Amino acid sequence: MTWVAWRQQRLQLLLTLVVILAVTGVLVYFRIDAVAYLRAHGIEGCRTADEARCDAAALSAFGSEYRAYVSLFPLVLLCLPVLLGMFAGAPLFAREFEQGTHIFALTQSVGRVRWWTTKLVVAAVPVLVGTAVLGLVGAWALRPFSVIAHGRMMTPGFETQGLVVMAYTALAIALGATAGLLWRNTVAAMALTIVCYLVLLVGVAGTLRASYVEPARAHGAVEAGAAIGSRSGRSVVPDDAWRLSTVYYDAAGTATAFDPSSCTEADRSIENCLRRQDIASLTASYHPDNRFWRMQLIESAIFLAVGASLLCLGAWALIRRR
Prior knowledge:
This protein folds into two domains: 2-207 and 292-320; 216-287, no CATH class. 62% of the residues lie in helices and 7% in strands. It has helices at 2-40, 56-99, 101-106, 112-141, 146-149, 164-183, 186-207, 270-276, 292-320, and strands at residues 216-221, 242-249, 255-256, 281-287. α1 (2-40) runs parallel beside α4, α2 runs antiparallel to α4 (112-141) and α4 packs antiparallel against α6. It is elongated.
């Protein structure tokens, strides 16, 4: 049964692994190129500009050099899991039912559970191993670009590197495979995969992710140079952190509103704009960069659990259905 499953899916598997390998190769190439650029211009390891080693003009030039890559390539990584789910997961069982080949397989002393398990393992395990490696390589390869992308805690940085790349792929394959078992139509299974995947991804990112860990909080006085989003290095929130909320206070300690749209070039800095609006201090809640792997583990566990539940649903439907 394993050999038959491999023969049925080998072309699709090989093409999938070639795509993953190509994406990984692009990540490695740009990592090496960016590190060489940073080293050549004496700004290696810089996150913000300062008056000593990290020259603002050199960092700006680095941003201009690689901004297109940092803006566009994460979209490839963002789309890859759902595409794998659509083209590797959705046809896995649906095509068998459409062509009637499942009848032959299930009449050769092969039980339904064994047929389901073997096809799923042969199709999914190599892809999941490949995307796990891709996610880890991505976390390493995209690190030098944090000065452009302002960290990996926010979208799309969080979703396009680390452990979640594999977890998202597992969910997408589970969605596609289960939809194919339930509807027995490849096109319907592909459509359901992309819709359900996007709903789950956006829903988790928008409602759950911020509460995985208790947010850190920081308070600062504007007179001491405190700001939010300042590139001067004096912001109460690190530039690579995920900012959740900010509360502003006047001199009496009363919460007040801040209108960023009223800031002008005459203010010369965000701190001057804050003072002009009678804001004396502020408190910010955020997730710092050192929580990246912890939050990755939590989100990966959520998506793997949902994917496992979907696979159980598919197995149950296969056993019960005549």
